[in-house]
Amino acid sequence: MTHLVHAIGHLKLNVTDPDAVIAEATDILGLHVTRREVGQTWLSSNGRAVELVLLHAAENAAHTVGLEALTVDAVRAAEARVAAAGCRILSTEPSLEGVAAGVTFATPEGLRFEIHTPIRDELYGRRHASTGVGPNRMDHINVMSPDPVATRRQLEAIGGLKLSERLVDDSLSWMYGGNRQHHILGLVKGVVGLHHYSFEFLEFNQYLRLGDTLDRFGKQMVWGPGRHRPGDNTYAYYTDSSGAMIECASAMAVIADDEAFTPNVITQLERPGNVRVMNVWGTPAPLEWRTHHFPFATIS
Ligand SMILES: [Fe+2]
Q: Residue 14's domain spans which residues?
């Protein structure tokens, strides 16, 4: 099946204290505010009009995972597949101003996705003055699902996402889209939620700056830096004041040879052997990372 979904489009989060989250997103991570209005704030790391939408709300929770398709036809093709995949259409209009087309749907497991055409991008407006580190782009999102096999089946049927790698018990799995990055979406088995969202770093020195900048704000990394085996990307994680976990990842391995590619299945689940198959280098995942959960907003 063709990849209708190309890449991560955006992420919407409900937050109770937007000022605190905005301060950390700008002063630590280095995003910039692109729109501020009653009820919501838009942030971006580059020339895209928005990558992260903060909805000012009475709870801290993930609201919608936005997946980018390249054309209106691709969005409409995805829309036509939603019902047959067992999911429910919530809207056939784009949720963000300036986006040509979008379809939002809910999964039976309680996740909400929007497949939408690309967000407006100012190609030569990528860099902005900031004391924060300054990542390149939002590159992947890991969601939590009580039935990740069902979630994968839905995303493959609707958006043409494909499995790239999984743990044999499906406690963790990864899916790729049209940009062939090893994963644009990760799935963690558990109570429905958001495990982390990730921005791409372009050079390793940015981890040093991240660690030092977090220290200035009285914070520390949760895990990292290190290099994951699945995806072969470097990583570091920290949590923000809303309780969401943010990853800073390097450019991942890409699956260019799609025809000959066979998804890897990790069968070694027990430590210490599991440490080597999950990590190229760096310390094993701490309990705080393994048990992290950020809720997903209830879908009415
Ligand atoms: Fe990740």
A: 5-116
User: DSSP assignment of 116-185, as one string?
Assistant: EPPPPB-TT------SS---SEEEEEEEEES-HHHHHHHHHHHH--EEEEEETTSSEEEEE-TT-BS-SE
User: What are the pLDDT digits (tens) for 197-225?
Assistant: 999 999 999 999 999 999 999 999 999 99
Q: How far is the CA of 230 from the centre of ligand 1 (A)?
A: 9
Q: Model's pTM, two decimal places?
A: 0.98
What's the 136 CA to ligand 1 centre distance in angstroms?
A: 15
Instruction: Give residue 141 CA to ligand 1 midpoint distance, Å.
Output: 7
C-alpha 138 to ligand 1 mean position (Å)? 11
Residue 296 DSSP label: B
Q: How many domains does the chain have?
A: 2
Query: Which of 136, 67, 139, 134 has its CA nearest to residue 107?
Result: 67
Within-domain flag for 128: no
| Residue-wise burial string across 213-232, b where 16 or more C-beta atoms lie within 10 A, e elsewhere | bbeeeebebbbbbbbbbbbe
At 254 the three-state DSSP class reads strand
With respect to residue 59, please indicate whether it lies within any of the assigned structural domains: yes
Residue 251 counted as domain residue: yes
